[in-house]
Design brief:
It holds the Pfam family APH. Its EC number is 2.7.-.-. The chain has 2 domains: 14-105, 2-Layer Sandwich (Phosphorylase Kinase, domain 1); 118-292, Aminoglycoside phosphotransferase (APH), C-terminal lobe (Aminoglycoside 3'-phosphotransferase, Chain: A, domain 2), CATH 3.90.1200. A hairpin with a 2-residue loop joins strand 7 (204-207) and strand 8 (210-214). The protein has helices spanning 14-24, 65-76, 118-133, 153-165, 172-184, 231-234, 237-247, 251-272, 277-292; strands spanning 33-35, 43-48, 52-57, 89-91, 101-105, 193-195, 204-207, 210-214, 220-222. It is an alpha+beta fold. The strands form 3 sheets. A 5-stranded antiparallel beta sheet has the order 1-2-3-5-4, with helices on both faces. Strands 6-9 form a two-stranded antiparallel ribbon. The longest helix is centred in the last third of the chain and has 22 residues, at 251-272.
Amino acid sequence: MTTRMHDDQVDPTPDDVRRLLSAQHPQWSGLPVTRVAESGTDHALFRLGDDLVARLPVIAWADGQATAEAACWPPLAPHLPVAVPVPLALGVPDDGYPFAWSVNPWLPGGRPDASTDRMVLARDLAGFVGALRGCDATAAPPATSRGLPLDRPERDAATRRSLARSGDVVDATAALAAWEEARRAPVWPGPPTWLHGDLTAGNLLVVDGRLSAVIDAAPVAGDPAVELAACFQLFGPADRALVRETLGTDDAEWARARGWAVSIAAMEIAYYRETRPELAERSIRSIEAVLSE
């Protein structure tokens, strides 16, 4: 990594991957190991040959994500319209690397870009979200942050702090008003539904203009409104309206989605504006999209 995103991150290397594979999964130890330049914010990715990828957390909050995906995705994947990263094998820490890690299939595709038809993507994303919501979440792990009610004092305080720190790049007064409106909206009336847990523009893969995979999940059950926050990162008004119509989203859920978009974006601006300015800029645009409605 050329820029450290987190003060307490670790930076695994290809040599670390080779050592871990040799000790724990020797069937893949002979494959070439290549660092993936675009690895997100909480994992380092390493291609293993052509068909596999090793995912190693770089920060403590991502430790355990591989175990969660290994438990949750296998029964859900057959019911979803696009691929999700079902781990092929799990790894454990050793003396040189501190977190649980995994080996996964390499899912082809690229992130949505300016050439991606947003109306098509909106339809595909709504299909994924709707299918995930339709899966039985009785035994799903409960949400611990995203997906909980918006009126929790700790979320409110963190959102307000982040907006105060971001007032030079967004209309913090208007964003705070949207946040307060969301907190007053009726809560989700149904049982918790399955959530991807980190549905963002950076976790979508597109092949030939169609959504092909959704990656980097933290599957839990909670208020599905949080998944719709991605609409403000990705879509314009017409595309967002298509998502709402497809999912049957009422005004209360949409208000909560707007609140989640503001809260998540404000925290990302405050956290990443120096180390990942492209993420901060994406979040600025997300808040602007909320305020444009």
